[in-house]
Amino acid sequence: MGRIVFVLVSILITQFYINVDAQTYVESGCTGYYFNYTHGSAFEENLKHLLNNLILKSSSQKFYNTTVGVSPDKAYGIFHCRYDVGLAVCSACVNEARKKITQDCPLYGEGITWYQECMVRYADRNIFSTYESYPSFGFTNSINVSNYEDFAPILSKTMNELINNASSTSKYIAFGKTNWTVFETLYSFAQCTPDMDRFGCNTCLKSAFSQTAGCCSNTLSAMIYLPSCQLRYQMSPFLKDHSPTIINQVSPPSKKKGGMKMAIIIAIAVCAAVGLIVLALVLWLCLHRRRPNDAQSGLHDGTEKGMEDTLGDAECVQYDFNTLKIATGDFSAENMLGEGGFGIVYKGTLENGQHLAIKRLSVHTTGQGAQEFKTEARLLAKLQHRNLVKLVGFCSEGDEKMLVYEYMSNSSVDRFLFDPSKRPLLDWVTRHRIVMGIARGLQYLHEDSRLTIIHRDLKPGNILLDKEMNPKIADFGLARLFQGAEKFGNTARIVGTQGYMAPEYLITGDYSVKSDVYSFGIMLLEILSGQKNRTSKKSPQKEDLSIHAWRLWDEGRSFDLIDPVLYNDCSINEVTRCIQIGLLCVQANAEERPTMTAVVLMLTGSIDLPSPLPPSMSTQKYSTPIGYSGAQQSDPDHSSTKSFTMRTDMDHDLYPKPR
User: Fold this and answer.
1) Pick from 577, 470, 463, 469: which is nearest to 523 by CA?
2) Is this prediction's pTM over 0.85?
3) How many CA atoms lie within 13 A of 552 on its CB side?
4) I need a surface site. Which of 92, 200, 360, 625 has the fewest CB within 10 A?
5) Could you tell me the sign of the dihedral formed by the alpha carbons of 249, 254, 256, 260, in that order?
């Protein structure tokens, strides 16, 4: 009997129903980043007067901020009561919080105490009208959601509407009630301190919601407390007064909808099975129609005929020089897209109206004979994936060697991402599509193509965009190809782009598929933040973007990294998930980084995310020569497996920056 009573009492204690006539303690946070005071000091006396003043004001108002004393011993203080509690409860709560904060934060220069009914905060610096998200506290006591796939989008939509409503009202308060099943209702509440502006309130609440991923993932309830705001949701009422209710009605899922969903799944499965049978039949016919001697042609066949047989399904056209000369207007300046260290890229238009990007390589850059050039060009053309720039042909006549690519009308990602006037064009949907496209392109290079291909120069400048802003990986000038299971190599000559090279590659020359994963992680953090990673010691940034992102994540402030352009546009859950994925990709130990196959699954939400380990403290502290000088010479690899450089495409960018 005693055990049963204990369990019942425990359940009652942990219920979210709040008795507003009593104060429910949540948490205290104490910091001494700026200074810690001593007993008998002027600041201690000012703090005592400050806290007494807050108690006096709490009997007549629910928010108040004030100061006591003069610098450098000036004390700043704030109290804020939840909007639905009465003045008597507010005053009693502030009094309890005053006692608690002096007990929990002795001699600390800053302190904050949260009760469910109020918050009391003090500091030795000006904390008024300033959005701050540290320290913070998150709590849940609910069991996991059994049908989280249905619940997650409803929660995200409800929270985004709630946050926008709260930051739009004059009092920065909003309450939501969402019917998400026939019998279940989600109650939610958001409140900012009244001294905030609209932008600060919106940012604070979004940061609070992003922190639910750390404390309350897959649960039906959460309470998040930040110095400037609080956010809460659960499946039962918890406020005394629901007067400022914002009702978000969502149609509950029905059996009919579930039946339709199942029917669609079955139909798709049947169609897929039929498609696979047809595809297998076509492949069987193609294989049996091929001549026996063709089937035995190998990848390393030195004859042109051998390459054509092996790569016969790749549409790689050999253009004559005059055709490309006419298409580019005799390589006129008007058609020049850009110039790099190894050639000029022109826009070409064929007689049929087809647009092409034609890279005219400098004579001294290829270091190849005509046959070798053709072989590597056809190998490039073999890489067929929707997220890789397609090489449609080449030209090799005497000293003239050119590569012909599909034309990408929107140039590269960096032209949008790092241009303040163009960055707003990259909304969240577009950025997420770009990230997914890059990930799938790399997965193909690492896992799904006939050879393992390590790009080694991934960066926003090498991600091109088509007319619909779909991403395609370009510039394989530094790529390494491996046969078999080997996916590791070593070089004595470090080449690439500073800021995107993995630390193990900079230090020892070791490269692998995990080197590309690191570069992808840096790009992902850049795309999310709109900030360029530090590329040299002289860069204006004080630290690498990966280190900055790690600090924010470790402090529970991941949302602070996000590009402000995305504040009212993005899915908070998706953004914070992407930040964590980026940090997993830039971990210092290459073995701890996920494969690109795992990254794709993470981005689609198919697998849970582990906690990332810290990235390398800096990839710029190593004094390593970086650049493309000597790239046309042989590369002294020390890999145990055969690899070679595709030297046919060695510019920094497919579309270098215009002169």
Assistant:
1) 463
2) no
3) 24
4) 625
5) positive
Residues with catalytic annotation? 457
Q: Which residues pair with 357 in a beta bridge?
A: 347, 405
Residue 144: burial class (beta carbons within 10 Å; 0-12, 13-18, 19+): exposed
Residue-level length of the chain: 659
Note the CATH architecture for domain 23-128: 2-Layer Sandwich (3.30)
CA distance 120 to 273: 63
Closest residue by Cα to residue 173 from 87, 110, 244: 244
Q: Which residues contact 195 (CB under 8 A, 6 or more apart)?
A: 63, 65, 78, 128, 129
Along the chain (659 residues), what's the average pLDDT of each consecutive run of 10 residues? 36 34 78 75 95 94 95 93 92 94 91 95 90 81 67 84 90 86 83 89 84 74 91 87 42 42 56 66 56 30 32 66 94 81 81 90 60 66 84 86 89 91 92 95 86 88 91 84 69 79 87 94 96 66 83 90 89 90 94 91 84 71 33 34 35 38
Q: What is the Cα–Cα distance from 188 to 232, expressed in whole angstroms?
A: 6
User: Do the domains 23-128 and 294-406 sit in the same CATH topology, yes or no?
Assistant: no
Domain 413-603: CATH superfamily is Transferase(Phosphotransferase) domain 1 (1.10.510.10)
